[in-house]
Amino acid sequence: MAMVLGACAGTQVSNTRNSAVAGDTRYGNVLVIFLADSFDARRYLETEIVKKLNERGTSAVRSTSMMDSRTPVNRDTFLAMVDKIKADAVLVTQIADLQSKGEVVDMNPQATYNITPTYYYNVWGVDLTEYKEPQAVNFEHELALATQLYSVDTKNVVWAIESHSRIRQDFDEERKYSVFVDEATAIVRQLARDGMLKK
Question: What's the DSSP call for residue 59?
Fold first, then answer.
């Protein structure tokens, strides 16, 4: 997952579906949690979601700001965070599905030439050495993230979506951060559209 989110190129903005809204309550102080194996991936996505929520006037705190990679990822840890920041809602994102398809590509061979004169007029000796690298693999990932908003008061899910991205990851392309921004933008935009945030 860290490779997919941290080394991707050509991402498409997530589209959202299966939005379900319950009740008329709007939330203004949110604890943001991303459940993934990589602490860095968790921190990156949580940071972008918090940033997007703050831009809309909603107070939000990322869970990774109150823990490190050794902190237990369990219910008690997150409940302590809720109490600490007095959150009225918890936004939880996790991986719903990840499908990856690889394509083997040939590498360009590299050659060196060693040219030396001979005893004959205008005749040269040429040694050619060719270095051929192992084949590489380009990947295409289809990533689905499930996001749920829990009410601290009722302890129930009050909103849920599933967001989808198609990510192309070429072996020689620079790692990009844009997928975190795209996912966060899609999630927070749908939260706002469904009237879940205090204005």
Answer: E
In a domain, 148, yes or no: yes
Cα-based distances in Å from 57 to 4, 86, 90, 163 = 31, 17, 16, 23
Asked whether the beta carbons of 7 and 38 are under 8 A apart, the reply is no
Name the nearest CA neighbour of 33 among 5, 70, 60.
60
Domain that includes residue 33, residue range: 2-103+138-193
In degrees, rounded to 5, the angle at the alpha carbon of residue 9 between the alpha carbons of residues 3 and 13 is 105
- So what's the pLDDT on residue 33? 98
Q: Which amino acid is at 167?
A: I
Q: Which tens digits make up the pLDDT trace of 115-132?
A: 888 878 888 888 877 777
Instruction: Give the amino acid at 95.
Output: I
User: Concatenated DSSP letters for 73-126?
Assistant: -SHHHHHHHHHHHT-SEEEEEEEEEEEEEEEEEPPPPEEEEEEEE-SSTT-EEE
How many structural domains are present in the chain?
1
154's CB contacts (< 8 A; 6+ apart) are none
In the prediction, which pLDDT does 163 show? 86
- Judge contact between 103 and 138, C-beta under 8 A: yes
Could you say which DSSP state residue 56 is in? T
Hey, what are 169's tokens? Answer: 């990851």
